[in-house]
Amino acid sequence: MVDDATRKSLGSIPLMRTKAGPRDKEAWVTRLKEEYQGLIKYVQNNKDADNDWFRLESNKEGTRWFGKCWYIHELLKYEFDVEFDIPVTYPATAPEITLPELDGKTAKMYRGGRICLTDHFKPLWARNVPKFGIAHAMALGLGPWLAVEIPDMIQRGVVTYTEKKG
């Protein structure tokens, strides 16, 4: 199901050990530390491989995440806002990653700009609860989605390049 490059990238992301969600008070704090460690490692690995493609931060409670993701196509950088909430049933339920500005521009998206992950990613997530975390959702969910959908949307003309100022 996953190619060797993805398997290698995935293998370098630490697995989560704590099965806790936002309602689990102290255990959630422990899980959140693991999540940050996983994200830091994944981002660093991406930078080392010259494959840096997103930035994320969260609210103080670690329940709301937001940032930017980008996709390079024909040497042009297409940048998008990314956001998601941690479900109350996390980690049993994967986060629903949202790219609000792309809402309605592809069939592989739900209302509000939530990307479609049901066919491929969610079964994989379910088999790996509680080991998968936010970094895994980015690596196996958003990353592949961008790689497939953005070039298609560019080709169809529904996403166009705009130069960023500053």
Question: What can you tell me about this protein's structure?
Answer:
It is a single chain. This protein is an alpha+beta fold. The protein has one domain: Ubiquitin Conjugating Enzyme (Roll), CATH 3.10.110.10. It is built from four helices and five strands. The strands form two sheets. Strands 1-2-3 form a three-stranded antiparallel sheet, covered by helices on one side. A two-stranded antiparallel sheet has the order 4-5. The longest helix has 24 residues, at 25-48. The mean pLDDT is 92. One of its GO terms (biological process) is protein K69-linked ufmylation. InterPro entries: UBQ-conjugating_enzyme/RWD, Ufc1. This is Ubiquitin-fold modifier-conjugating enzyme 1.
